Amino acid sequence: MGLLESCSLTDLEHLKGYAADAPGLEGMPPSDEALRALVSADAQITHQMLQRVIPGWDVEAGVAAAPKFLEMPV
User: Fold this and answer.
1) Contact between 27 and 20 (Cβ < 8 Å)
2) pTM higher than 0.70 for the full model?
3) Nearest 10 degrees: Cα torsion 72, 59, 54, 67
4) How high is the pLDDT of residue 51?
5) What is the CB neighbour count within 10 angstroms for residue 43?
6) What is the C-alpha R_g of the chain?
7) Each residue of 12-71: pLDDT tens digit?
8) Is 45 buried (19+), middle (13-18) or exposed (0-12) by CB count in 10 A?
């Protein structure tokens, strides 16, 4: 799917900004390692991967939504 390319992101800073509001992160962005793993997984993300990036959010819904991005016209 090429998440970074399709979103025109060249680094992880934008993703960090979105995730920093996750209740379990207490205002701190997720680690670069966790974000890279999530991006590399493409639409095949796992609950554990997503939980590391956005703890406290609806991880179940996020995992269910990931494959739907493949269905979207780009």
Assistant:
1) yes
2) yes
3) -20
4) 93
5) 14
6) 12
7) 888 888 888 888 888 888 998 998 898 888 888 999 999 999 898 999 998 998 888 778
8) buried
Q: Tokens for 68?
A: 């739907």
* Burial tier of 51 (Cβ tally within 10 Å: 0-12, 13-18, 19+): middle
Contact 62, 50 (CB under 8 A): yes
Residue where the block lists tokens 């680094």: 11
Tokens of 61: 């819904």
Token code pair at residue 32: 């670069």
Write the DSSP assignment of 8-35 as a string of letters.
Answer: T-SSSHHHHHHHTT-GGGTTPPPPHHHH
Distance CA 44, CA 57 (A): 18
Phi, psi (deg, nearest 5) at residue 37: -60, -40
Q: And the tokens for 57?
A: 């959010």
